[in-house]
Design goal:
about 230 residues, Spore Coat Polysaccharide Biosynthesis Protein SpsA, Chain A, 6 helices, about 20% strand
Length: about 230
C-alpha cells in the first residue's frame, strides 16, 4: 500500500506580502486553506511543515494536532534564495522513509480536494505501472507566445492558424508535485526522469498562486464574491 505524506514548506517572512503565509485572507490564515483541504482529502498519513517560524509551528499544532510533523528549518536553509529542492531533500531525509510525497504551497489556497484526490489517484495507478515516476500540475496554454526578444515560440506570425490548432505548451503552475524517495534521489529534484504534466482543467482561478499584493486582493474578491466553493 502506498503511503503518502504531504509537504507544506513555509518561512516566516516574505518580500512582497509581509507575513503572507499566516496573514489572514478573508478572516482565515492563508496556509489554513490548503492545509484544511489536504486533511479533508484523507489521502495523507502526515503533513510535514518545514518552517523557521515559531508562530506557524504553534498555529499548526494547535489546529491539526498529531497529524502534523514540524521540521524546524536549519539556518543553512533559511533565506529567500534557497532552492526548494534543498528543503525537500532535508524533509524526506529527516522523515527517513521510502514514502510518496505530495508537495504544495500555502499560496495555492484554491487548490481543491477533488483535484488533489484525482492527482493522487492518477499517480497511484501510473507509478505502479511504471509509466511515470512523478506528477506535477500545469496549466495548458493554447495561445501565441513570444520570448523576451519577441521571437515567436510556438507559432509563425506569417501563418495565423487558429489558436486551438497551435501546439500545446504547458505552464508549470507550482500547485503540486507528487514524487517518491527514489525518483527524488535520481534527479535530486521533485520532477523525475519520467514526469507527467497534470493539467488543471477546471479554471485558472483554482491554480491561482498568490505572489504579490494584486494576487492577494484578487483572492479576497473571489472569496467575498462567492466564486469559490470550499465544500
Amino acid at each position: 500500500m502506498m503511503k503518502f505524506i504531504a509537504l507544506l514548506p513555509m518561512k516566516e517572512n516574505s518580500e512582497r506580502v509581509p507575513q503572507k503565509n499566516y496573514r489572514e485572507l478573508a478572516g482565515k490564515p492563508l496556509f489554513f486553506y490548503i492545509a484544511d483541504s489536504l486533511k479533508k482529502t484523507k489521502c495523507f498519513e502526515k503533513l510535514i511543515i518545514n518552517t523557521d517560524s515559531d508562530k506557524i509551528a504553534n498555529m499548526t499544532i494547535e489546529r491539526y494536532g498529531d497529524w502534523v510533523l514540524i521540521h524546524e528549518r536549519p539556518n543553512e536553509l533559511c533565506g529567500d534564495f534557497v532552492s526548494m529542492n534543498r528543503i525537500i531533500k532535508y524533509d524526506i531525509t529527516k522523515y527517513g522513509d521510502d514514502s510518496h510525497y505530495f508537495q504544495t504551497h500555502s499560496t495555492n489556497p484554491f487548490l481543491s480536494k477533488t483535484v488533489i484526490r484525482n492527482a493522487v489517484r492518477f499517480y497511484k495507478k501510473n507509478v505502479i505501472d511504471n509509466k511515470y515516476d512523478t506528477v506535477f500540475s500545469v496549466n495548458e496554454l493554447k495561445t501565441r507566445l513570444y520570448d523576451k526578444d519577441l521571437k515567436p515560440i510556438n507559432h509563425n506570425p506569417d501563418e495565423l492558424i487558429r489558436t486551438q490548432d497551435l501546439d500545446t505548451i504547458y505552464e508549470e503552475n507550482s500547485n503540486f508535485y507528487i514524487f517518491n524517495t527514489n525518483s527524488f534521489q535520481l534527479t535530486n529534484g521533485r520532477i523525475g526522469k519520467k514526469p507527467f504534466p497534470f493539467v488543471m482543467e477546471s479554471n485558472r482561478i483554482e491554480s491561482l498562486d498568490i505572489d504579490d499584493p494584486k494576487d492577494w486582493e484578487f483572492a479576497e474578491e473571489l472569496i467575498y464574491g462567492g466564486r469559490i466553493d470550499f465544500k
